[in-house]
């Protein structure tokens, strides 16, 4: 089963990489950079990853070392997406104020949501040794909505930007589906509620991708820099405060698993050059 989980994660990555050339060469930024129908096609990747994660969680969750290795891989892809696709667009116009304000707002929102959830959980939840299921669902929904909007904006900039962000979020959706499925079932929620909740989050991501492309594509350069800076902060929070923190928990972390961070980063660099 661990081999199946590893293969499923690798298959998601290779599928995204294989589909990217079919989308065409990089296009200039603008409202018509990519058709909404093509973005809908890309949105099927995170939806498929969610369904795959549900199946894996129901049959047999991956071991901690496999999960840690895949989280390192996903974190590498996310960091590469920020470094290669988003940061150059942020710095190109030289709008220091918009970069600083957007990045600050992004950091403030992500940590604000974290602090608010910890406050809502209260000491009783901490004594139980975990977060409440509803808190996790709310936090995950906010995170995925932001990710979807950022992917849509990425497609408005270029196909390669949107594709790389989609691949990164696809890995995130795989882990979320596996982790939340096991958590919700373990806390007494029905299988129907679990499946409906996760499918709703996948659809939320897809809808936000379309909204991001249609509503944010026509932004002026300064506004786009602000949104990109905000999104960069959100993605960096995902990589360093969620994926890597969880990947290093307990004794799951191994040298081979940690190497996959650099594999994901390097593969994304090459993919960005090829797409």
Give a structural overview:
With 275 residues, the chain is mainly alpha-helical. It has one domain. The protein has nine helices and no strands. The longest helix is centred in the middle third of the chain and has 32 residues. The protein is globular, with a radius of gyration of 18 Å. The N terminus is likely disordered.
Briefly, what is this?
The chain is mostly helical and 275 residues long. It has helices at 2-19, 36-59, 64-92, 96-127, 133-157, 159-186, 191-216, 221-247, 255-274.
**Overall tally of domains:** 1
Low-confidence stretches: 1-33, 124-130
Distance between the termini: 32 Å
**Kindly state the mean pLDDT as a whole number?**
77
Number of strands: 0
Please identify the structural class as seen in this structure. Answer: mainly alpha
String of helices and strands? HHHHHHHHH
Q: Which descriptor suits the 3D outline?
A: globular
Topology, element by element:
Layout lengths: L1 H18 L16 H24 L4 H29 L3 H32 L5 H25 L1 H28 L4 H26 L4 H27 L7 H20 L1
Labels describing this entry:
single chain; 275 residues; mainly alpha; 9 helices; globular; disordered N terminus
């Amino acid at each position: 089963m661990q081999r199946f989980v590893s293969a499923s994660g690798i298959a998601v990555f290779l599928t995204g990489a294989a589909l990217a050339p079919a989308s065409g060469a990089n296009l200039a930024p603008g409202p018509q950079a990519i058709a909404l129908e093509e973005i809908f096609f890309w949105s099927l990747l995170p939806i498929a990853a969610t369904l795959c994660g549900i199946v894996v969680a129901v049959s047999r969750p991956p071991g901690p070392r496999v999960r840690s290795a895949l989280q390192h891989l996903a974190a590498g892809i996310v960091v590469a997406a920020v470094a290669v696709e988003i940061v150059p667009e942020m710095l190109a116009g030289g709008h220091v104020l918009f970069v600083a304000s957007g990045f600050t707002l992004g950091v403030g929102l992500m940590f604000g949501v974290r602090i608010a959830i910890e406050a809502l959980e209260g000491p009783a939840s901490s004594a139980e040794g975990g977060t409440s299921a509803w808190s996790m669902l709310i936090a995950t929904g906010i995170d995925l909505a932001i990710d979807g909007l950022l992917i849509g904006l990425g497609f408005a900039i270029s196909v390669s930007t949107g594709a790389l962000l989609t691949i990164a979020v696809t890995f995130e959706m795989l882990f979320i589906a596996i982790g939340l499925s096991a958590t919700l079932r373990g806390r007494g929620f029905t299988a129907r509620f679990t499946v409906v909740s996760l499918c709703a989050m996948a659809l939320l991501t897809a809808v936000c991708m379309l909204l991001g492309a249609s509503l944010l594509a026509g932004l002026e350069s300064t506004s786009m820099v602000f949104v990109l800076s905000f999104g960069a902060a959100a993605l960096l929070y995902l990589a360093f405060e969620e994926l890597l923190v969880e990947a290093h928990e307990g004794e799951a972390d191994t040298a081979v698993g940690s190497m996959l961070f650099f594999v994901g980063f390097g593969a994304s660099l090459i993919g960005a050059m090829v797409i």
